[in-house]
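QA checklist item 7 of 12: single-chain prediction sanity check.
[x] sequence parsed
[x] length recorded as 81
[x] structure emitted
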Amino acid sequence: MSGLDIFAWIVLIILIASVIAVFCIAGWLPGHIAKTRGHPHAQAVTVAGWVTLICGFALWPVALVWAYVDVPATPTKEPRP
């Protein structure tokens, strides 16, 4: 094994580690944003982020948008005098 082969293996290992890290960060991001913003469905956003990422990435942006969307406040009844 020459020095060039060793360098190629090091680059390959770093590349694989980087892909795994980006995958984990992308799955974690929607849930983290939802928890930070105090979203009432933060746990569901977390699950949606991981499930959509694992099942094909197509709906992952929807989970990310959902993390930013504020849920409208429910109307409260005012007390009658």
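[x] summary fact logged: The chain is about 70% helix and 0% strand.
[ ] second reviewer sign-off
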